[in-house]
Structure formats: C-alpha cells, structure tokens
Amino acid sequence: MNQKDRETILKKAQNEPFAKKFQLTFVDLQKGYAKVAMVFTPDMENIFGMAHGGAIFSLMDAAFEIASNSHGTMAVALVPSSSDILTSTVGLPLESNISIASTFLIFII
Fold this sequence. Notes:
Blueprint: H1 3-14, H2 17-21, E1 25-30, E2 33-39, H3 53-68, E3 93-99
Antiparallel strand pairs: 1-2, 2-3
C-alpha cells in the first residue's frame, strides 16, 4: 500500500462522524491490517457495567473498514462476526487488531 492511499484512508476514517462520536484512534494501517483504539467510557456500559457489545463491535467494524479497503478497491463485510470478547474497565483503552486473511468478489447482476 502506498503512502498516499494510506493517508487518504486514515484521513477519511478519522473525519467520519461515527469515529468522532466514539473518539476512535486509528493507530496503524497496512495492507490487509488495521489497529484502532478507543477509551471505554461510562456511556458505553451495558446493564452489567461492562463494555456494551455494540461499542465493541463498532470498534471492530471501524478497524475492519480500513483494513478491508487497504487493498485499493472498495470493500464491505457480508457476514461480520466475533467471538471471545473480553470486558474492560471504564477509562481503559480497548483495541481492535484486524487482519484480512482473504478477499473475494461477488458480482450481483
């Protein structure tokens, strides 16, 4: 991935209203890989006082968004999923590291 494409993707991601709402920090971006972080704040708690799954999935989705688009073509997730999510303490950072193992094309006619 060339530096110009990397900077363009990071700039667009950082300026997304959703990324600003969650105060996401785009830590790293390489071809097929991204690392994004956010601080777990009290307004992200679920009914048990742990990080809400929606907040965690939003973090992972932001990392997936830039990692999957680092190949130079527009990409989207068809069936995103996660497992083994751990909780965090309010005020501590959460990080998502995404590596794209494979890509494929689907043509809709």
